Amino acid sequence: MAILSTILIILFVVVSLILLLLIMLQNNRQGSSGLFGGGSNSAFGSSSMDVITKMTAYFVAAFLALALAVAWIKSNKSNTDAIQKELAAPVTETAPASSSSSSEASVVVPVETTEPAMAPASSAPAQTE
């Protein structure tokens, strides 16, 4: 799952950079060229803006699909990690089974202690004689 996540993130970055360049290449509404400024509008032929506009639309769709895929994989990974940590937690103590029914499963009861692990150190300095 980690390899798929890495591949999707790399693809996401590449599509983002290509989308950035495509947007910069488009003509804006005032008539001047995008990234290179001025010049003629027929650098790639008479219908070049149609091609760049279509490519931009395809890359926007790819960008959105990759964004959703990366988010979905990352959210599933965090859920899976939490479940694995919960399953790996050791069971400390079980309650004894009731004497009335021996076929019932035992219930796991967590035990909480209120005693400190170590006695607190005394704040008075040791006296030497």
Can you tell me about this structure?
The chain is mainly alpha-helical and 129 residues long. The chain has a domain at 2-24 and 48-87. Helices cover 50% and strands 0% of the residues. It contains 2 helices and no strands. The protein has helices spanning 2-25, 48-88. The protein is elongated, with a radius of gyration of 32 Å. The model has no long low-confidence stretch (mean pLDDT 74).
What is the number of helices? 2
C-alpha termini separation: 68 Å
Largest sheet: none
Kindly estimate the percentage of residues that lie in beta strands according to DSSP: under 5%
By helix and strand content, what is the structural category?
A: mainly alpha
Write down the overall mean pLDDT: 74
Helix content: 40-55%
- Compute the CA-based radius of gyration: 32 Å
> What's the count of strands?
0
Secondary-structure element order, N to C: HH
Q: Which structural traits does this protein have?
A:
129 residues; mainly alpha
Structure in a nutshell:
With 129 residues, this protein is mostly helical.
